[in-house]
Write a structure and sequence with these properties.
7 strands, Alpha/beta knot, seven-stranded parallel sheet
Length: 178
């Protein structure tokens, strides 16, 4: 069987303007003190791919426009809604007060394995990814409604934040949209 690669012009992708009018997946991504500009750009691309509601960039997390974010975002900073917030704790409290479920992606006591986590119809989830070295701030983890852990079976104890985002967003997308 021959498999011909599809050209970008054949994919029928929507424009950034059309993206803004699409029904969004009830997921918000919060980046808590992310250092790598390439990771930030990669998260924007993942958010675009799965129609994520919004990205919050918190603490030291850099903001568009920046050439190193753009290098990996490939224009997704124009389609995905985003906002900068200085303090992740204040933001997560606000979102909780609005009824959003706060989910830290972290290795913690009583964490739920991603494969065992079930979503609720009509619920919005704010998923928090933390600093590449220190992870999600303890105060944020402590106030989270749920802590999710990505199961890992090798010798390393963590995944790159952009990889973690892709894994978690795809899993939640499937559970929420199908």
């Amino acid at each position: 069987m021959k498999h011909r690669k599809i050209k970008n012009s054949e994919l029928g992708r929507i424009s950034a303007e059309e993206f803004k009018t699409q029904e969004k997946t009830p997921i918000i991504i919060i980046l808590d003190n992310i250092r790598s500009l390439n990771n930030i750009g990669s998260v924007f691309r993942t958010a675009d791919a799965f129609l994520i509601q919004k990205i919050y960039l918190c603490g030291i997390t850099a903001q568009p426009p920046h050439k190193d974010i753009q290098k990996t975002a490939l224009g997704a900073t124009d389609s995905v809604d985003w906002e900068y917030r200085k303090d992740t704790v204040t933001l997560t409290r606000e979102l909780q007060n609005e009824g959003t479920t706060i989910v830290s992606i972290e290795q913690a006591e009583d964490a739920v394995s991603l494969e065992d986590f079930n979503t609720e119809e009509g619920q919005t989830y704010a998923i928090i990814f933390g600093n590449e070295v220190k992870g999600v701030q303890q105060e944020v983890v402590s106030q989270s409604d749920v802590v999710l852990e990505i199961p890992q079976y090798g010798t390393k104890h963590s995944l790159n934040i952009s990889v973690s985002c892709g894994v978690v967003v795809w899993d939640l997308f499937k559970k929420l949209r199908f």
